[in-house]
């Protein structure tokens, strides 16, 4: 797929108990940076291929900026506080986001809870990273980018007047949230092999667990509402198919292990117990798959090409490691 085609994309770490633990995170990262700083800078200048734990956490922070802004605007009409946007590299603004027209009380509560979690994730990662935290990059959450993505995925926009507005209704909000949540889960799992500090692993595991709960909430809501409106399941399945197209068909043992065509929609599947729901997109071993940083960027940038910007991040993500800013050549 050409980049211009814009294919479809793409609670856990809450406040830690006590200032000591937060301070330990900051000290650990700072010490690691001071100890290996020269070697890391030299390595990056040569190849930009060996991410540090700080790089991985900043990779996660970019995704949390995206999700926190989407949910915060969709639920409340406002985004992250100004003091949660600063950091190293170029700070960008959010465009096109607004409060969603949510009417279902359950969906409103889902949006409220997830928004609170995602805002807390940004704050937690920024505290862990301290002065190493990157600034929020430019983020496009406009109906235009969602429309281009939905069109490329083959979603029929006739019922929507030709425009997929993620803020127009409960169903649209859920479909838009579905784009992000599954990608977040696979991104955290994909980044886990690069972590070694036990406290950082503990924090990342908490984030992964929270994102998995969020994904389950969104998938479950779509499945339930799809009983009365089957087109919701159909559209979610199309998004999954498009994500599979974007992140490519290559396979590797990793880490992280790269598995082609493993993204799954929400339509019922066949198991040894018969026809079942598909809230949890697992493989034959009951395990959720991983995505590499490049694959995540393919979905976030809405392209199969190797680029450094596009889609939801018009100027690219922020990371001192160039390898964690680009998509893959699929």
Task: Give a structural overview.
- This protein has 330 residues and is mostly helical.
- The protein has one domain.
- Helix content is 50%, strand content 3%.
- It has helices spanning 19-46, 53-76, 105-129, 143-152, 170-191, 198-228, 231-246, 293-301; strands spanning 94-95, 139-140, 269-271, 274-276.
- The longest helix is centred in the middle third of the chain and has 31 residues, at 198-228.
- Mean pLDDT is 86; it is low at 1-48.
Topology, pairings included?
Elements: H1 19-46, H2 53-76, E1 94-95, H3 105-129, E2 139-140, H4 143-152, H5 170-191, H6 198-228, H7 231-246, E3 269-271, E4 274-276, H8 293-301
Parallel strand pairs: 1-2
Antiparallel strand pairs: 3-4
Structural class: mainly alpha
From the N-terminal CA to the C-terminal CA, the straight-line distance is 9 Å
The biggest beta sheet is recorded as:
2 strands, parallel
Shape: globular
pLDDT below 50 for ≥5 consecutive residues: which ranges?
1-48
Number of strands: 4
Q: Could you estimate the helical fraction of the residues in percent?
A: 40-55%
Number of helices: 8
Number of domains: 1
SSE string? HHEHEHHHHEEH
The neighbouring-strand order within the major sheet is: 1-2
Mean pLDDT: 86
Question: From the alpha-carbon coordinates, what is the Rg to the nearest angstrom?
Answer: 19 Å
Proportion of beta-strand residues? under 5%
List the defining traits of the structure above.
330 residues; mainly alpha; 8 helices; disordered N terminus
Write a concise synopsis of the structure shown.
With 330 residues, the protein is mainly α. The chain has one domain (3-324). It has 8 helices and 4 strands; from the N terminus they run H-H-E-H-E-H-H-H-H-E-E-H.
